[in-house]
Recover the amino acids of this structure.
């Protein structure tokens, strides 16, 4: 059983009495099935709801992933890709639950090198964690970087989850050089 009392913190967390109630209650999570699950918990404060995602694997490892943007790639005109920031998203998934993307990062990276925060996910032992790194940026009609239309560029990393394992991988994509470090 999970008990929850979620509030919207006002004024930077000063006085708790000023916080607005969002949702409160309990949830029974007794499902013994394996895989990833999403529970939508609806509150009675203005129709607010919170989605809680959880995963249950019979044999699993905790995977800690660190992503570093090493450098932005140079464009044909000599400017650096990412002037003003690189619009970046990183999602992860495991092949046993391919329809369940885990959003790890979404935002603008405005300088390189840059360590993004560490991400922790549960991965079934001896399976793979696949990271999808997606950047949006400018390109011309031929798909070359540097004009006013937007393009999407994608890169992937795959890690095999082993107990007490570690792997580092560095890849050069069309938008940036990205390094990942995974530990289980």
């Amino acid at each position: 059983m999970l008990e929850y009392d979620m509030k919207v913190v006002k004024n930077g967390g000063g006085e708790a009495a000023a916080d607005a109630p969002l949702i409160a209650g309990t949830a029974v999570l007794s499902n013994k099935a394996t895989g990833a699950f999403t529970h939508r918990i609806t509150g009675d404060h203005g129709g607010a709801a919170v989605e809680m995602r959880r995963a249950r694997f019979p044999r699993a490892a905790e995977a800690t992933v660190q992503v570093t943007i090493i450098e932005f790639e140079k464009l044909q005109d000599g400017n650096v890709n990412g002037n003003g920031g690189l619009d970046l998203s990183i999602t992860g998934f495991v092949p046993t639950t391919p329809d369940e993307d885990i959003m790890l990062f979404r935002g603008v990276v405005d300088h390189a090198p840059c360590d993004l925060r560490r991400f922790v996910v549960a991965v079934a032992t001896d399976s793979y964690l696949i990271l999808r790194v997606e950047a949006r940026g400018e390109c011309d009609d031929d798909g070359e970087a540097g004009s006013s239309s937007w393009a999407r560029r994608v890169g992937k990393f795959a890690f095999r989850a082993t107990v007490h394992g570690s792997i580092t991988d560095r890849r050069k994509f069309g938008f940036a050089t990205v390094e990942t470090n995974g530990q289980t």
Q: What stands out?
A: Residues 13 and 19 are 8 Å apart (CA to CA). The chain has two domains: 2-56, 60-183.
